[in-house]
Amino acid sequence: MTITIGLPSKGRMKDDASAIFERAGMKIVAVGNDRSYRGRVEGFDDVEIAYLSASEISREIGNGTVDFGVTGEDLIREGLAEADARVEIAARLGFGHADVVVAVPEIWYDVDTMADLGDVAAEFRTRHGRRLAIATKYWRLTQQHFSGSHGIQLYRIVESLGATEGAPAAGQADIIVDITSTGSTLRANHLKVLSDGVILRSEACLVRARKPEHEGNEMIGRIIEAVRGVL
Ligand SMILES: Nc1ncnc2c1ncn2[C@@H]1O[C@H](COP(=O)(O)OP(=O)(O)OP(=O)(O)O)[C@@H](O)[C@H]1O
Ligand SMILES: O=P(O)(O)OC[C@H]1O[C@H](OP(=O)(O)OP(=O)(O)O)[C@H](O)[C@@H]1O
Questions:
Q1: Which helix (H) or strand (E) holds 155?
Q2: What is the largest CA-CA distance in the chain?
Q3: Is the C-beta atom of 104 inside 6 A of ligand 1?
Q4: Which residue ranges run through the membrane (predicted)?
């Protein structure tokens, strides 16, 4: 059986992911030229590398097209319903840290917690004639956190695919759910994170698709052990 590992094709995660595999004794070489989207692992003839975007990796692990992938936990939990049943987080890799957070305008002085926000959401329609609008690309995580964990039902999600932090100032939404790492983008946009507004602390993970053919496969176990051994 050929084992396929999906690795980020660009950006901040690509080099860190390759470095971990190299330290684990699995040096990755491009097939063809440097711009190729396929790779192989020196000394591992039955392993192939597919270079994909971080969000594609989450999707391909979910449908089992790749056996392993390196991607952010945020993209796994956002991209896949029932993520824990479909994939195993085999290792947390210690890079690509980002928190998915609920942030509101700094000038909402009375709003510091999700409970405060629930009060605002409940009164919002009476006061403003519409529901509280949340800009995000994290639909699933937002619904789980608001409706599931905090019982807040009165809101509307406004899809945002970029520059989410600008949405409140632009009048497109009232608050946001997005990732933050240093916090500087939130500060620059006069937004603050609620004290219980961290939905997920994400980092890059080695993720395995749960497939029946992995049971008892020696190479699957060997790859996981090799990566864990260098963390
Ligand atoms: N400061 C950051 N900004 C954006 N993503 C970050 C940051 N730090 C870590 N990450 C993580 O990187 C991953 C997203 O990477 P990237 O933007 O390359 O993915 P992508 O959405 O597939 O890219 P694209 O939208 O360009 O196709 C997420 O898991 C995210 O949590
Ligand atoms: O807390 P900070 O350190 O300010 O980082 C957070 C920002 O970084 C990302 O944007 P970026 O433009 O880097 O990437 P993206 O376009 O992939 O979202 C992310 O979407 C936030 O806007």
A1: strand 155-159
A2: 66
A3: no
A4: none
Q: Please say if the pLDDT value at position 15 is more than 70.
A: yes
Spatial distance between the Cα atoms of 222 and 64, rounded to a whole number of angstroms? 19
Running DSSP on this structure, what letter comes out for residue 65?
Answer: S
Q: Does residue 164 contact residue 178 with C-beta atoms inside 8 Å?
A: yes
Distance 224 CA to ligand 2 centre (A): 30
Q: Give 8's strand partners.
A: 52
Identical topology for domains 3-97+203-228 and 98-202: yes
Q: What are phi and psi for residue 60, nearest 5 degrees?
A: -70, -30
Burial-class residue 60 by CB neighbours within 10 Å (0-12, 13-18, 19+). buried
Instruction: Say which ligand is closest to the CA of 178.
Output: 2
Read off the amino acid at residue 205: C
Interface confidence, given as ipTM, is 0.93
Closest by Cα among 231, 172, 167, 175 to 203:
231
CB 98 within 8 A of CB 200: no
Residue closest via CA to ligand 2's atom 6 equals: 180
pLDDT per residue over 58-80, tens digit each? 999 999 999 999 999 999 999 99
Domain 98-202: assigned CATH number: 3.40.190.10
pTM of the model: 0.95
Task: Please state the domain extents for the chain.
Answer: 3-97+203-228, 98-202
Architecture of the domain made up of 3-97+203-228? 3-Layer(aba) Sandwich (3.40)
